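Figure 6 in text form: structure in, sequence out.
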């Protein structure tokens, strides 16, 4: 697979963005589970509690679907990087640059792609 410098940089940036979004969806789900637990432990349940529980469950389902879509795209982006970077270069730090953007330092390993954004543009 061939990739331009712009495509390579975009793909790496997108991986960083997707990883952050996936982390956010899990935090939302964790908070939702805490609310569910608190509601389940209440001694008395009123209609509003039931409505909030149902709403929370609906939002959790939407959140789970979003997380699955993000993970699917993340896997696709990582696959693009893996198909572009030769196995012989695995373990070697690669710098990806884009005009006006901070450099990205990439290390592709067999089990993980490490990406670190440089602080300088």
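Output sequence:
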């Amino acid at each position: 697979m061939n990739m331009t410098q712009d495509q390579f940089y975009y793909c790496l940036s997108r991986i960083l963005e997707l990883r952050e979004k996936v982390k956010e969806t899990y935090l939302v789900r964790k908070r939702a589970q805490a609310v569910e637990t608190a509601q389940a432990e209440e001694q008395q349940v009123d209609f509003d509690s039931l409505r909030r529980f149902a709403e929370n469950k609906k939002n959790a389902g939407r959140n789970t679907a979003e997380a699955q879509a993000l993970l699917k795209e993340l896997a696709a982006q990582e696959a693009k990087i893996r198909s572009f970077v030769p196995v012989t270069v695995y373990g070697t730090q690669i710098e990806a640059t884009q005009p006006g953007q901070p450099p990205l330092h990439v290390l592709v390993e067999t089990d993980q792609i490490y990406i670190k954004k440089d602080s300088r543009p």
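Caption detail: The beta strands are 93-96, 104-108, 113-117.
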